[in-house]
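Form P-L/3: holo structure prediction, ligand NAP.
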Amino acid sequence: MGVEPNERVARLYEEVVRRNAGQAEFHQAVREVLGSLSRVLDRHAEYAELKTIERICEPERQIIFRVPWQDDSGEVHINRGFRVEFNSALGPYKGGLRFHPSVDLGIVKFLGFEQIFKNALTGMPIGGGKGGADFDPKGRSDTEVMRFCQSFMTELYRHLGEYTDVPAGDIGVGAREIGYLFGQYKRITNRYEAGVLTGKGLSYGGALVRTEATGYGAAFFAAEMMAARGDSLEGKRVVVSGSGNVAIYAIEKAAALGALPVTCSDSSGYVVDEKGIDLEVLKQVKDVERERVSAYAQRVGSASFVPGGCVWDVPCQVALPSATQNELDETAAVQLVRNGCLAVVEGANMPATPAAVDVFREAGVGFGPGKAANAGGVATSALEMQQNASRDRWTFEHTETRLAEIMRDIHARCEAVADEYGAPGDLVLGANVAGFLQVAEAMHAHGLV
Ligand code: NAP
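OUTPUT (holo model):
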């Protein structure tokens, strides 16, 4: 006791770094949230006394397991699987699975930590967790992916349950992978427990709009941010990175709201199409043929492909980074500001580096942090769980209306809390504080667990 909130938070961060050595992305995510919390400790001394922040930074449970599988030629491979069950104060652990060669414990912990606050912001009864494996589905046949998913679930199933832990997709985990994972869970447990995974196919308990939800939600959030500035998305040039689930549907909804999305990308480079991205072609290339994004430019006359280029060099008024963490650095941020960008909205998790966020803040560019702006995906997952529990199915229109309302509420709540805590317009602070307060209150009520 007797320690100033700023000093307490700084010491706490040092301790997180010491106890979680080498987990750079996790440190970054913690630092970003802690940066907003000294103002909370000023008003809520009880959270210092109860060490609520210290407890939030320590996952409730971390599971690491071997995933052996055989490829089509009979060669044996060993991957590493992870599930970090971070916080269950608000509900069962909820958060996606990522299959990408870069996945390690630090990445899963950064994503799981962010997920706690994001899920709280949705207002739905879901806790925070995340998982995945250092497996690369790219270039693998469907049968290889199926064998991997079956082996992965053969260990993970014992930790899951509709009231315990409910995974979904993320990078490298889409409808195909969720189908194989669900099939193996059902086979092992002999239970048709639809609510144990979200992002399911429509033929077996999936919800309409879940596929589109993260991207649509990010576009709705962008529209709210523009409206708060007395502007709109109408006629705005939009630059989007990525060409996966989030990017495709962010492009679709931004275009539907009157904007002109002109780019998409993958790890090989970016495509620019001055006429606006043709979604039918993009979906065929990425979702059906599982091709590289350069194939788009080969088919569309108005498009060109820039191998290895930086998509943030393309002039725009709104930027929607929707690929991966730390893909938008300080140099890219300066370029966006120079080109007249008005708002940056994170479709991906933590795509802007801390230095990039500082550039936007100083330049007065609107900034929508991922834990608020991309919360539409997990919110719609919660709507999927609701439909599974009630054996019901809602229409596309009904679910999309709910999604739009949720995104409007999240934006309004972030703005209100930012105002209340003396940082008007700072949606980073608003999201962190609003999410934290909700989780902290529930943890307080549950006692020291
Ligand atoms: P996805 O469908 O697998 O697509 C990922 C896209 O990002 C691909 O175009 C991929 O290109 C690109 N990408 C991935 N890693 C990259 C890297 N290291 N460098 C450059 N490009 C890279 O995944 P997604 O579901 O759209 O997820 C994208 C982001 O949104 C992630 O940050 C994820 O955590 C976040 N998110 C997703 C959801 C959801 O519902 N899916 C919800 C909230 C947040 P390559 O094919 O070349 O790798």
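COMMENT: The mean pLDDT is 97.
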